[in-house]
């Protein structure tokens, strides 16, 4: 969700009054001088108009009258939205901007005419010289000079009318708040910046809707510059005097703020004095529809996805705790039962078993409740357990380990290996005269394989029916998804093998 902030209208100060007075003087002088010069030239071109010169004052008075009508129109449009002084000042500035634009067009026309004359053939140059000699071209220039004030008032009035049709746009464009949009966002700064860049690049594609301004082209050009830790992105349209500046600003609260500014470009575009309001409205509406809203919607979707993933991870962790709690009593109760039985037959063997049990519990106290373990820790637990069982079973049990040093510290889920060892004794060699259990760890491509192999009678079902194997499968699926599994099978020499296969990298 984003919020748009508007600055309050500026207060009237001496500096504002001085600026207003200066602008009024410039506009009135431009109007009056244009009309006076134009009327004088027309009078010189048409000698018969000399006897009408006494009435020239009345005709010149029509220009201030037209200015007063324009002033009343501006006040009418803005009387309910902004102070009169601010609206009148903006109206005069807007009119002066329109006159500058007309002047630039006239200069372009003159340059074009000179270019045609210089590059044209002999007949074209002769025709243009005849036009100048006959005075028709000069007459057009005179009439254009006379029309400039009226056209500037008309252009400025039309622009104000377009703004007044959008609620709040005229007041916002006058006080300048319309030219800046802000949106507060939350989330990872790197993710927000990369997502913003992705949406900005998308705007430059020809497959996206264009700006819809005939003279400026449809699709912008994207440039990025660094200002300290801030990345400032700019969208510019060909021949458009304004550009859009977009950046993510960090806030003291730890959140971020998306700021979009519409401002004049450098160079000759500075002649426009202010941002052309109608074009500014088009740019801000375009960026709101095709950048701000999709960008904010994508950030909200990403935030919702993170929350969903966090809840899923919490559910998985809770499931792992439940599954692991089912294994711990199962192993401990069997071990204590074995210890009690052993003390009935031999105190020496019972003390040895108790020593191994104490060592086992010291190693397992943190490990059994931990979220992560390692190969060496799990092998130590299995070694103490097998030592306990060897005291009980005597020569009926032998065991061996094969673990490369490089894999000793590799991460491994806790309480899985000991469950496989327990199953090997209970279901594999419990009734064997010479049982043997081999524990090993090895790598297979990008996977770690930890195996427990016995030479017993084997399972009647490779799927397993005990709590231990079932919980191992569920835990592996919860922790790693399809990247980890439990393999069970029958080796060539007989017996049974169970292998935990997990990825070498971190868990999902």
Describe this structure in words.
With 508 residues, the chain is an alpha+beta fold. It has three domains: 14-175, no CATH class; 179-306, TATA-Binding Protein (2-Layer Sandwich); 345-503, Histidine kinase-like ATPase, C-terminal domain (Heat Shock Protein 90, 2-Layer Sandwich), CATH 3.30.565. Helix content is 57%, strand content 16%. The chain contains twelve helices and twelve strands. It has helices at 14-45, 56-78, 84-119, 122-134, 136-164, 169-175, 189-203, 277-343, 347-367, 375-393, 417-429, 467-480, and strands at residues 180-185, 221-227, 230-236, 242-250, 256-264, 373-374, 397-402, 411-412, 435-444, 447-454, 485-489, 496-503. The protein has a five-stranded antiparallel beta sheet with strand order 1-5-4-3-2, with helices on one face. Strands 7-9-10-12-11 form a five-stranded mixed beta sheet, covered by helices on one side. α1 (14-45) packs antiparallel against α2 and α1 packs across α3. The longest helix has 67 residues, at 277-343. The chain is rod-shaped and about 135 Å long. The model is unreliable at 1-16, 49-53 and 460-465 (pLDDT under 50).
């Amino acid at each position: 969700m984003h919020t748009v902030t508007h600055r309050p209208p500026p207060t009237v100060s001496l500096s504002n009054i001085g600026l207003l007075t200066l602008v009024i003087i410039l506009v009135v002088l431009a109007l009056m001088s244009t009309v006076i010069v134009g009327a004088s030239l027309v009078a010189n071109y048409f000698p018969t108009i000399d006897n009408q010169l006494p009435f020239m004052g009345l005709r010149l008075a029509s220009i201030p009258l037209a200015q007063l009508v324009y002033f009343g129109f501006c006040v009418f449009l803005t009387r309910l939205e902004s102070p009169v002084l601010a609206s009148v000042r903006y109206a005069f500035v807007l009119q002066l901007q329109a006159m500058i634009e007309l002047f630039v067009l006239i200069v372009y026309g003159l340059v074009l005419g000179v270019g045609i004359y210089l590059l044209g053939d002999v007949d074209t140059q002769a025709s243009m010289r005849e036009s100048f000699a006959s005075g028709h071209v000069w007459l057009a220039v005179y009439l254009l000079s006379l029309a400039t004030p009226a056209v500037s008032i008309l252009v400025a009035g039309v622009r104000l009318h377009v703004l007044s049709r959008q609620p709040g746009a005229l007041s916002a464009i006058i006080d300048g708040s319309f030219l800046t949009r802000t949106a507060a966002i939350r989330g990872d700064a790197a993710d927000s910046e990369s997502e913003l860049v992705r949406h900005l690049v998308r705007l430059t594609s020809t497959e996206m809707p264009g700006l819809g301004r005939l003279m400026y082209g449809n699709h912008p050009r994207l440039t990025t510059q660094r200002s300290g830790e801030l990345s400032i992105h700019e969208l510019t349209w060909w021949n458009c005097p304004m550009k859009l500046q977009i950046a993510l600003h960090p806030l003291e609260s730890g959140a971020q703020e998306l700021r979009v500014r519409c401002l004049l470009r450098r160079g000759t575009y500075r002649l426009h004095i202010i941002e052309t309001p109608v074009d500014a409205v088009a740019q801000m509406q375009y960026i709101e529809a095709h950048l701000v809203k999709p960008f904010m919607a994508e950030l909200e979707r990403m935030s919702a996805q993170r929350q969903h993933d966090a809840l899923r991870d919490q559910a998985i962790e809770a499931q792992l705790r439940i599954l692991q709690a089912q294994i711990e009593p199962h192993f401990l109760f069997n071990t204590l039962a074995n210890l009690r039985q052993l003390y009935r037959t031999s105190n020496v063997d019972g003390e040895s078993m108790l020593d191994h049990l104490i060592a086992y519990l010291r190693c397992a106290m943190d490990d059994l409740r931990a979220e992560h373990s390692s190969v060496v820790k799990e092998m130590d637990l299995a070694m103490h357990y097998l030592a306990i069982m060897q005291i009980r079973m005597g020569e009926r049990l032998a065991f061996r380990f094969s673990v490369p040093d490089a894999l000793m510290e590799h991460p491994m889920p806790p309480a899985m290996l000991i469950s496989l060892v327990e199953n090997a004794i209970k279901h594999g060699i419990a009734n064997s005269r010479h049982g043997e259990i081999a524990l090993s760890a090895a790598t297979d491509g990008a996977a770690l394989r930890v195996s427990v192999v016995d030479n017993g009678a084997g399972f009647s079902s490779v799927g397993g029916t005990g709590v231990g194997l079932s919980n191992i499968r569920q835990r592996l699926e919860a922790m790693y998804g399809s990247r980890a599994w439990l393999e069970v099978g029958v080796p060539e020499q007989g017996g049974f093998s169970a292998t935990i296969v997990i990825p070498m990298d971190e868990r999902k």
